[in-house]
Amino acid sequence: MKKYIYFASIALSLTVFTSCDMDAPSKSALDASEVFSQPELIESSVMAINQCWGETNSYRGRHIALYGLNTDIEWYNSPSYSSRLTGKYNATNYSTSPENDQLNVTKDPYVSLYQGIENANLAIENINQYGDKQNAGILQLLGEAMTLRALLYVELVKTYGDVPARFTTTTNENLNMPRSNKDEIYKRILADLKEAEEYVPWPNESSATQSTERVSKSFVKGLRARAALYAAGYSLYQDGTFRRSTDKELAPQKMYQIARDECVSVINSGKNRLGNSKGTNFEYNFQDLCGEITEAGNESIWEIPFLTGRGRVVSSKGVRVDPANNQWVNWTEKDKTAGAESGPVPTFYYSFDPDDVRRDITCVPYKWGKPENGRAKQEPYGLKNTSFGKLRYEWVASYGAKRIIDQQDDGINWQIMRYADILMMAAEAENELNGPADAVQYLKPILDRAFPTTSAKVDALIAKYTASQDAFRDGIIEQRAFEFAGEMLRKQDLIRWGILNKKLAEAKAKLTDMQLHQGDFADLPEKLYYIYDTDGETLKIYGLEHGDQDDKEVAAVALGTTKEDLLDKGWLFSNGESTLTDDIINGYYVNDPELHSVWPIPQRVINNSAGTLNNDFLK
Fold first, then answer.
1. Residue 523 confidence (pLDDT) above 50
2. How far apart are CA 306 and CA 294, in angstroms?
């Protein structure tokens, strides 16, 4: 059963709120020395750090939904140049305004993440002052608090660039702080995570680390590796330059060594695995995520723990479901739709090898339509509005009763790290340090899983990638796209590699080729042809593969039906017009992405900062 605990500091008194499934008693107006001498109340204070993820307009509703778009493989469905100055389009097209109506709101992601940092600082300071540091459980909670604070800073820095470095609780003296150089923040959190490793057990080595909703040593090490790779790479600095750090302590080779050592430590521990106890199948991790299976030791390493009524995970990143109740969900608001708020860039599907099992799990060309008699069926949705498929309401429902969805909050956890990322970070760092000979051992399990029945293709990819250090680097760039699409890692990957502009320009050129039915897309049919399987709900589609023909007789034979029973839908073209318009392609990004690769701090925060904050470097 999930735990979600809230802890608040009000003036000089401390108030603890616990959820109904916790055994810890509620306390009010306690002195800090009393609270932080009791393990169950220390746990409440540390769990309260997680409150920030679920605030109304915060990480759950804005960051998960919007940050990380648009990349060479992911976009907001679908961009619009004519609406480039408004709402979610403006939040994702590298022209984000400080007054953006999605972000310049009460309890926005910036403010909420700092609320989490304030709770983390409070817990860390008081555990250090009052906690029994000879108690392994209390040390574990200290390490957990330090790790969550480091994660909050990783999220802040990647989202807003140079931000205030606040590592102590707020006082009148430090209430308003200017932006700090992100290098100082990275150095601090790398040191903090190194210390936290000594305090936090491996998965399943304590009662707390039996759950992916709690911090384990695997996550501490994985987060330290991720922070090191971010610190080693390119980013936008407050001086307006897009560059690597010039700080010798953050030299790329030093950071790659940290990332390599931390990831190899997790791999050698044997405490996590791809997939789950059923096997390594790619979909198993995501089925467990949708089913709220939080047992540690499988692929999932750490997830933000959302209760029912919080989250917006499947509803923003999942397969589209049209209004009204169906076999998967009950809606409290009958006019609500969910899923496919963002999705894969249309060209991305065609980048996969057809034998790569990740393709049809990641990219979904259908939606669940309006139900009849309580049951919906799949319908082709549209080239410009395809869905990510790693999160699905049918997988949620398969683990129990239909979920009541309230205002699109579905309660599914947001996965921050999985074991596949540990393997791929190890491969990347090893290659940068020593070349591909040893690095390939960490990439091979990813390829083996992607091509479970075609080992010859795995061998061919390995031969291609191990030809040189540069070739392996290109392989990492390629495989991280196929592996993590829709998980909102790609934008920061492209930024840290220094190729955001390059990859977005390439992606826009591919979209133009698709629009004009030329180049790599010249051999695709204009329509999709489809029938329903024997269940009457599941689609069988012809027209999604290179070389498929715009010929109804050929399509009917391929699908084992007759021309009379065959249905069709415009895909690349509809009524003779491309479904990818100039407005969509030009709205994909509208400024230099690298020089606008972070969100501005919201204007309401700037206005309340007593002149200490500004967004001048984003002009």
1. yes
2. 12
